[in-house]
Amino acid sequence: MIYEVVIGVEVHAQLRTKSKLFCGCGTTFGLSANSQTCPVCLGLPGTLPVINQAAIEMAVRAGLALNCTIATNNVFARKNYFYPDLPKGYQISQYESPICEYGWIEIATNEGTKRVRIRRAHLEEDAGKSVHVTGTNGSRVDLNRAGTPLLEIVTEPDLRSADEVLAYLKGLRDVLISQDVCDGDMEKGNFRCEPNLSLRPLGQKEFGTKVELKNINSFKFVKDAIEYEIKRHTKVLSEGGKIQQETRLWNFDRGETAVMRSKEEAHDYRYFPDPDLVPLQISKELIDQVRSSLGESPVARKNRLEQEFGFSEYSIGVITSRKDIFEYFEKCVIEAEKIGFEKLGFSKMEVGKELANCITIDFRGLTRHGVTVTPPNPLLFDVNPYSEGIVALTIIPAKNLLELVVMKMKGEISGPIYKSVLEKMVNTRKPATEIIEAEGLKQVTDEGAIEKIIDDVLAKNPAQVAQFKEGKQQVLGFLVGQVMKASGGKASPGKVNELLKRKLQ
Ligand SMILES: [Zn+2]
After folding, report:
1. What backbone phi and psi angles, to 5 degrees, belong to 215?
2. Ligand 1: centre distance to CA 145 (Å)
3. Cα of 144 to ligand 1 centre, how many Å?
4. How many CB atoms lie within 10 A of CB 19?
């Protein structure tokens, strides 16, 4: 028997608002427990929720970017259940009338482009977090996260493999990041995904019994968990067994799923409209205004970057991984356009590539006020490659970064000096020319001065000179290195090469 895999996905995306969904508490990740709480998000009696306008706008923005219809009349509902990290005993969510419906997103598959339908996306508040302290008997509750705004995005069961699920998740995350409504960081839990999966005999219309998967916090685990479940279902079904409808947890240590709760234990949430919140009307003006500012889609952007700069898919992934980083790159390119590529002496593609290298690689390991700037991590595609450290990058005015990069391209400064000037720019905010001037780092291009150093180095290394004359070409590199070192890295490498070769003839 050949089986067809049917998968749908729920994603909880945390919206990037400064404050929570129904109170003014902050949403910063990683602060000390319960430091971002107030009577409203603690669920104290007598408090009333007030909806956050920014969250509404972000939900509308995400919905429109995902080709959804936006509901102008919104009702919030109470989803009732008991859990220690849910102070009110219910979660405010949307039930019958989600803010976004009937959208879609296109993904690339082996068989070409495929449209994945989005059934709905609704706004809800997050719960807090239970912290189980090892070495003690107790558990603690941290309510910093209670009340942060989530957009729950639910697909139709349109996906047919783990790879399609990954393509969907990456595509969805790209859209949310490009619209600046979500950080998309799975490890920090602000982009959580729960696939549901069933198998049916190929050609059968009716769906099989499905299981839901939880506790997955990286793209790799999504793939592993789905592939594990496909194997498990296939085995059970082909042996004539029955799949139980249940929720399963992914245990990444053991590489397998385990039952979390069965259908019998499933909650009855007793949804009803929240009497504390009047129906929320979203004006057509707001929808139109957001629609007109959606800008370029991630797919169109990817195509443009490939065409204009010849970037690889990997480079595009890094440079567009955060909206502020991408905008910074574009600002630098605009500065180059203002000067003109002809005047700079390089093509747009050449300048763009150097800028991208600088932004995505050269910031690696720099320190700002003694703290190492967190570098992008190219190997972990599922981890947001930038953290707070990247702020260091964006404090350099685009014009100044371009100036430095072009100096390096022209060979006016050597590699090591380029890197140290970059670090000084991060720390002092001064332009490169000023730093180079003040510290006497200007490249030595004066032939007489370089020749003097070369003569010195040749006199000190007669053995290497003899080897070179015997035909050992690779000794040249050593000699260039010695000259560069003797000049304090200031000699122009091009000039050194040229003069050395001339002298050794
Ligand atoms: Zn609060």
Report:
1. 70, 40
2. 9
3. 8
4. 17
